[in-house]
Amino acid sequence: MSIYESSKCTSCMACYNACTRNCIKMNYNSSNSLEPCINENVCAHCDLCLRLCPENSPIEREKSLEAYACWNLDDLERTSSSSGGIASIFYSHFIKNKIGTAYGCSYDENLQLKFSKADTLEELPKFKTSKYTQSYVGDIFQEVLYDLRKDKFVVFVGTPCQVAGLKKFLRKDFDKLLTIDLICHGIVSQKYLDDYISELKLPQKPNKLTFRGEYNYYFNLYKDDKIIFSEKSEDNLFFKAFLDGLFYRENCYTCPYASIQRVR
Ligand SMILES: Cc1cc2nc3c(=O)[nH]c(=O)nc-3n(C[C@H](O)[C@H](O)[C@H](O)COP(=O)(O)OP(=O)(O)OC[C@H]3O[C@@H](n4cnc5c(N)ncnc54)[C@H](O)[C@@H]3O)c2cc1C
Fold first, then answer.
1. CB 160 within 8 A of CB 188
2. CB under 8 Å to 146, separation ≥6 — which residues?
3. Measured on CA atoms in the order 216, 208, 193, 53, is the torsion positive or negative?
4. Atom 19 (ligand 1): residue with closest C-alpha?
5. 71 CA distance to ligand 1 centroid (A)?
6. Of the candidates 250, 230, 233, the residue with the CA atom closest to the CA atom of residue 241
7. Quick one: average pLDDT of 95-115?
8. Which ligand 1 atom sits nearest the alpha carbon of residue 133?
9. Which of 80, 149, 167, 244 has the greatest CB tally within 10 Å of its CB?
10. Atom of ligand 1 nearest to the CA of 80
11. In the prediction, which pLDDT does 174 show?
């Protein structure tokens, strides 16, 4: 049984995090996108997953009252980020003052993009730069809730659909939660990246990938910080397909969040 029609599911994983019986698994569907699947044998039919799905009951969104244009004044911080390096300013404010935790996503050594948490300034660089595949939420919403219940400040940066999923999962407002939703024009399944890298048949297995940052708009693969594959965005098949919007998740093409109305 699925929770919502495949073409609308964003894979925000609010349902997965909310299920107290642990009966939701994430599987790849026929269009290679991750989607939740309920194990009927364990399910208690409480319908919590259906009620918390932001696509079943859309979250409140509103137009921002004010907008500011800004960038990070620290040259190194800015040039090692994708745009103005603002994400790292928010993160480091709370960590420096020892009042909170930071949540974002990074590639692990197998180039799997996942959400994780950082408590120290040393851990923050892992979150830097835009990664153009879908980040796996896992049980990170439960960790956010745990921190909020401990009265910590939490900064969570993600795509608007992930922020909507977090807000639905939490079910109430927390004064100490700061969410930042990226301007996002669509996201690509992790599976396409895995297949693409495997097709490159590189002599060494890469353990780092960048799209932006120091080498801006380059698809760069590294082995232990040494570049082993590098192509400009316009020459790279994966990057070009991403920028041209050829292989996003199905739901991205009708994204309700791509609007001036942002998740509250
Ligand atoms: C999939 C995607 C599509 C984008 N589309 C647009 C666009 O159409 N127009 C535009 O102006 N800008 C777009 N951006 C850029 C985005 O808005 C910038 O990342 C943002 O401006 C932050 O830049 P920064 O320099 O402050 O921080 P950076 O250090 O560059 O940003 C890092 C932050 O982004 C988060 N992040 C990176 N990749 C992902 C991901 N795949 N999923 C969830 N969170 C992620 C990190 O966890 C971290 O918190 C896109 C980014 C992504 C990831």
1. no
2. none
3. negative
4. 130
5. 14
6. 233
7. 95
8. 41
9. 167
10. 29
11. 97
What's the gap in Å between 159 CA and the centre of ligand 1? 8
The answer to whether 4 touches 24, Cβ cutoff 8 Å, is: no
Residue 35 contacts residue 29 (beta carbons within 8 Å):
yes
pLDDT, tens digit, for every residue of 142-201?
A: 999 999 999 999 999 999 999 999 999 999 999 999 999 999 999 999 999 999 999 999
CB within 8 A of 43, min separation 6: which ones?
1, 21, 23
157 within 8 A of 137, measured Cβ to Cβ = no
Instruction: Give the confidence band of 64 by pLDDT, cuts at 50, 70, 90.
Output: confident
40 Cα to the center of ligand 1, angstroms: 37
Is 182 near ligand 1, meaning CB less than 6 Å away? Answer: yes
Residues of the chain with pLDDT > 70, as a percent, come to: 98
Name the residue with the closest Cα to ligand 1, atom 3.
184
Q: Is 158 in the pocket of ligand 1 (CB under 6 A)?
A: yes
In angstroms, the CA 259 to CA 30 distance is 28
Backbone angles phi, psi at 246, to 5 degrees: -85, -25
